[in-house]
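S1.2 Input.
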Amino acid sequence: MKSRGIKDLYLPKGVALHVKFMLFCVLFSPLWGLIIGADINWRYLLPTFLIMLVDMEVIYLLSKKIFIFEYDITSKYSVPGKFTRDYLFRLLLFYVLALAVITLVFAVFVVLSNLIRGNGFPDFLWLVHELKGSFIASAIAFLFVTPVFFFIPWQESMKREYALREQNLIFQNETLKNQVNPHFLFNSLNTLSSLVNTEVAVAGQFIAKLSVIYRYILDNSSKQTVSLNEEISFIRDYYYLHQIRNEGKIKLEIDINSDGYSYKIIPISLQLLVENAIKHNMATQDKPLTINVYLEGKYVVIKNNIRKMATQVVSTKIGLKNLNERVRLVTGKEIIVTEQEGNFIVKVPLTA
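S1.3 Output.
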């Protein structure tokens, strides 16, 4: 984790948040004592500080469980300005549980305090009276700290969504130029030129597949996700053109059961990886390039055997970086790239 500057106290974001909680409790404990007219000493400050800190930490964890938009910006709860009934129910549930947590924590500290002092278990009616006052004060105070648990995560989700929209705009402008390599189009047209004179039927199929490929790109370049089934069909069509041109030098093996096709994936992601495998590896009929596609948990894996060319194509890895950024923005995860036992492996996270 990287520090983000003065607003996060030059600390990693996750650490900075908890430090802010502690600083808030340190400052607010004596202030609250002045408001209620308590004696400002360590016997008051320490329990009050601990009660406030435990309340804030537990409520923060609770907010992350209830407000799922903080983690999944593709869910309906993350869309700015849209307050569904289910969302409002979650907000109400959050307030109820938060107040319950505050009251429970206060009760536990009061009971422990009495037991430690040797006063025994407090009288029930006295405890109820103390809890009533605590509940009312907490309800009022909680309205003022709501931004910590709601508006800040909501604002973060909006920033991430706008970043995703910006990335998608860039992707739309660059897709037709970069995603299907111009060399591939040039070679495809050359292949088609020879097929028209020799194998008319095959030429017709070739044109149909080429048309399907570009139609898929036009239809899906602006989408965040498509079904895995659609993406697999797309790379089958893409592979078909290579298969005709390379005459068995490249093998594509797909092993995904029907259940796996219910997942969603970033559009035109697998094609990029298949294209990279073909671009950076040598392939002959005796030693073909084999590309395997299969599921591993909630990842789709693209694996190819490494067949280094005599003259290596310089790799900028821009394609992988752009793909990783799009995957991160949509799923919150990153692609996994490894080399194992002579194989190049890329794992792309899926969404439900």
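S1.4 Remarks. Residues 186-349 form a domain with the Heat Shock Protein 90 fold (CATH 3.30.565.10).
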